[in-house]
Amino acid sequence: MGLRPARCYRTLKRAYTRFSRANKSKDYVKGIPESKIHRFEFGNAKRPYQYSLCLTVRDTVQIRHNALEACRVSLNKNLDKRVGTDAYFGKVLVYPHQILREKMLATGAGADRFQSGMRLAFGKPIGTAARVYSGQSVVEVRVDEAGLEAAKKSMHIAGSKLPCPSSILVKRIAG
Length: 175
Known about the structure:
Layout: E1 41-43, E2 51-57, E3 61-64, H1 65-82, E4 88-92, E5 98-102, H2 111-114, E6 124-132, E7 137-143, H3 148-159, E8 166-172
Antiparallel strand pairs: 1-4, 2-7, 2-8, 3-6, 4-7, 5-6
């Protein structure tokens, strides 16, 4: 079964964890899926850079872990191609803590015979998401003067992987 669209999970709702007075073994969510983000830092971290570019979101949303990983992979690939392997450093600044749940529904012929409607509708954990507020930075990239325009283009492409509008802030690093 494929993923549901991002619009199903991007609104911020109250964090919901099950609390059962009758049966204590049903209290908490069991089996949180592993995050798809493999590396939070990429590039060359050891050398000093002149500019810092931050990808900031304009809306308050939840960003799924697979969207964050797609953003990171596209940014890393484009910077590697345009700037060079050792001429940049990037970092994902948010961590997906929020657990996303889904109530699986059967479809097709005979589905109504074994479905229970909204009974026991807590849902199974299917992934995680990061809560991001308006104006918060999601990804930061550091480059030199020569790679500034290429980094802006790469950040613009990576911003399209996120489920909300984003903007790029450029800062000069003193030093």
